[in-house]
Amino acid sequence: MSTRMHHGEAAPLLERLFFNNRVIVLAFFLLATLFLGYKMLDVRPDASFMKLIPLEHPFIKNMLEKRDDLENLGNSIRISVEAEEGDIFTPEYMEALQKINDEVFYLPGVDRGGLKSLWTANVRWLAVTEEGFEGGPVIPEDDDFTNPANLEELRTNVLRSGQVGRLVANDFKSTIIFVPLFEINPQTGERLNYQELSHQLEEKVREKFSDHGVKIHIIGFAKKVGDLIDGIGSIAYFFAMAIGITLILLYLYSRCPKSTVIPLMCSVVAVVWQLGLLATLGYGLDPYSVLVPFLVFAIGVSHGVQIINAMGIESAAGADSLTAARRTFRSLYIPGMLALVSDAIGFLTLLVIEIDVIRDLAIAASIGVAVIILTNLVLLPVLMSYIGVSKSSIERAQRHAKEEPKGWKLMSSFASPKVAPVSVGIAFVLLFVGLYASQGLKIGDLDPGAPELRPDSRYNKDNAFITQNYSTSADVMVIMVETAPEQCATYATLEAIDRYMWTMENVKGVQSAASLVTVSKLVIKGLNEGNLKWQTLSRNQYVLNNSISRAQGLFNNNCSLAPVLLFLEDHKAETLQAVVKASLEFAEANNSDSIQFKLAAGNAGIEAATNEVIEAAQDQMLVWVYGVVSLLCLITFRSIRAVICIIIPLGLTSVLCQALMAYLGIGVKVATLPVIALGVGIGVDYGIYIYSRLESFLRQGMDLQSAYYATLRTTGKAVSFTGVTLAIGVGTWIWSPIKFQADMGILLTFMFLWNMVGALWLLPALARFFVRPEKLAAKG
């Protein structure tokens, strides 16, 4: 028996409670499973623009405070309509564009007042003539484009509109429909359904007009999320694959059909409970948390194997099914509970990250691990008390007990006085190599387009097309210049904005900048016969007021806000950091009571804020997760030495994982940050089971190497099996069509395997230096 004296009578009391009332316990689990299974049917894909952004970050607070005065550049889509033959100046193309524009206009959630294309009245041309300014909509009054004269007038208007490179491709073979979106659908009052919108874009735009002589390219947050949610459907196949692989491995491990099916069934029950509870609490599954049920299943199997392994050992010693189950529960309840509580609390440390999608993942994972405490530590042994293990399995365990496997004998040398120092030395070398390699780890996206999706995905191909054919980037950062009411057009304000734009256009990664200064200079030049010498700001306030009257959308109604739009080459972390740094330096030097430069809106501004939150939370999260796990181990084992032996292998794995991320070019972002906490939380299980069993043998008076050999014979095989099983379970994600899920699969597979290696190789070596067997034997 490995239950320790300082745990008191907790386990025996619970043992009597569960095993003296087995029928009641099973009835409770049956009813709860039926109820939560019914509730599970209510789980729906859940995605929200607001959940993906750090609402407490100053940039986002500024953006939300001014959102009514800003054009919606964060949550919008761009639809590029490409002419398959020729250019856009054909009757067939303009007819198709008009129909697509009208179709998009009526899609759910579209901010129709902000919709822009060649066919909307808010896209206009402006020219200077002998009689002054002339202008109007780009589409001529006579829009019969079967008339060549009207097409020629359209071409002239497009050239005079300033939209070439923005709404019109540089090669005149495609145009863009800019579609801003409402987060809350104004028609229904409900949150915008991104999956439904994405499907409607495919059906009513891409597919419907595929035979109209045009190709459709669609990018934007809503489309990206819609594609991610669609990728969730393939997860069911991976889940089925993981169950099948685990079923085969479990049978090969136990050679007992009953010991194979029951742990799997209990793990599936845990998943049902988790999904049912999430639905009951009003949570859904977004693309980032959809893999959590995988983890719950894999964790359930890993703890189930420990139960089955112990049942086999007790049965081989001659115990009947009920006695074997009771002894198994008694010996594994404390380490199992400690491991699962460590997992759950470790996941909850993700709540320190102020991004709702990560917090939802933390809650989903914690709920899942919490239910495993019941389904695998209570339901499984109670079921096995009725079913027992097969005779063939018992005979196999008895033969194994008489054998002395050379593999375990060899591995026990990890605890020997000669090998342990070598192992610790190798660990130090790996630590330094990992620390050096992890210096290349970056925050944020490292690839263009949507790194969450595969490079060859339709979305990323569409993004590449738009990037290559338009001068204006889809990555826009908006700086909000705030003044007193009616002061945004004063010379002092415009001059400061002008200097800021010049500063930013000389920052690497900035393509161009636009603001009401841009319009003012163009108008003043036009008022002076188009002379380039006059393309500057006037000190005459009347001239300035007249010059900005046509700057639609570039200042608010009371002229207290004038946004500056920075068009960036990409949204890579280095680009965003450079732009933010230069902007903050300029703001610090120029902000006063009369003018304030505030960061930042636009999709690039949101991305920059998210990167800053992730960077700040990374170390904070690690401190919390390691602190909580260390504290729980300390409370359980009441030994700093035990904590060191369990935690150091986890720390080495975390460092090596960061080095692997740097090597593979995987940045730390919303999708990958939780992996480190998940890996630590689950990986601690191995160390807890190994150390708990090792300590029990040391208390019996064994020397360290003998105690570790006995540990390997009783628990080592189960730990090795669970490590491989967990790795295979999440390893199937590598083939996901969603790249960030594949990245999570690679990283978690690595962490699970290395945590297993650390528990079996490094923990006994550390025990040679930190554990005092004679003291434990005296206490035992």
TrEMBL record:
Transmembrane portions of the chain: 21-41, 235-254, 261-285, 291-311, 332-355, 361-389, 419-437, 621-637, 644-666, 672-692, 718-738, 744-771
Keywords carried by this UniProt record: Cell membrane, Membrane, Transmembrane, Transmembrane helix
Membrane topology: Multi-pass membrane protein
SUPFAM superfamilies, per the entry: Multidrug efflux transporter AcrB transmembrane domain (SSF82866)
Any one GO cellular component localisation term in the record: plasma membrane
InterPro entries: MMPL_dom, Mycobact_MmpL, SSD
Coiled-coil residue spans: none
Annotated localization: Cell membrane
Domain SSD: 264-386
Pfam family, one: MMPL
Protein name as annotated: RND family transporter
